[in-house]
Amino acid sequence: MLVKWIRCTVVDRRGFERGQRKWAGLPGEPGFRGQGGGWSRLRPGVAHVFSFWESRPFYDSFMARSHDRLAAAQSGTFKDAQAKLFDYRFDVKTGFEPRFTDADVVRVAHSRIREDRVEHYALMQEKVWNPAMAGSPGMLRGMFGEAPGNEFLVLSMWQSAAEHGKYRAERVERLALRTQLAADVVALTGDVVDLEAAWTV
């Protein structure tokens, strides 16, 4: 599975949201698995969209055929768009599927890892971070993805911002020490996204 993460700063909120509804045509696309997104809780005016595809060839075919027609509705409504593709590596918790209807919040963590620490980082994600997150009340499901250049994406879906906040406050600092996160990471950014039901496809 392929994950596309788009982040942008919205300059015309009403126009952007109107355009976002045009993506409702995606389910007819071969290989499309799901899409959702919403507004950053931490950065005013920043929108995140996550879309999922069965494989790179399906995604490439969509980009070549239908993407520009669907995207035209949002032209001029945003700036500073960044899009990244990640290959799915494994679940956080079990049975990940790109479903957004039962979640209120998505936590996204994007990291660049030192080349000699990639294996250690992935192992710690699987053996330490995943069980800790999976055992947190309100955490629904998540996935761990990888992009060229030792970049990784951890996407987790939560029933509420309050539940995610409890996990952060109680666990994250302790786990970061235990997994030697500072030794692995070159750069780490994250955000908490309030999902918009109208953006779910």
Entry keywords:
single chain, 201 residues, alpha+beta, eight-stranded antiparallel barrel, 31% helix, globular
Care to describe what's here?
There is one protein chain. With 201 residues, the protein is α+β, with helices and mostly antiparallel strands. It contains six helices and eight strands. A hairpin with a 5-residue loop joins strand 2 (32-40) and strand 3. Helix 4 packs across helix 5. The protein is globular and about 45 Å long.
**Separation, N- and C-terminal Cα atoms:** 17 Å
Summarize the helix and strand pattern as letters: EHEEHHEEHEEHHE
Helicity, as a percent range:
25-40%
Mean pLDDT: 95
Radius of gyration of CA atoms, rounded to a whole number? 17 Å
Q: pLDDT under 50 segments (min length 5)?
A: none
Structural class: alpha+beta
What's the β-strand tally?
Answer: 8
How can the largest sheet be summarized? 8 strands, antiparallel, barrel
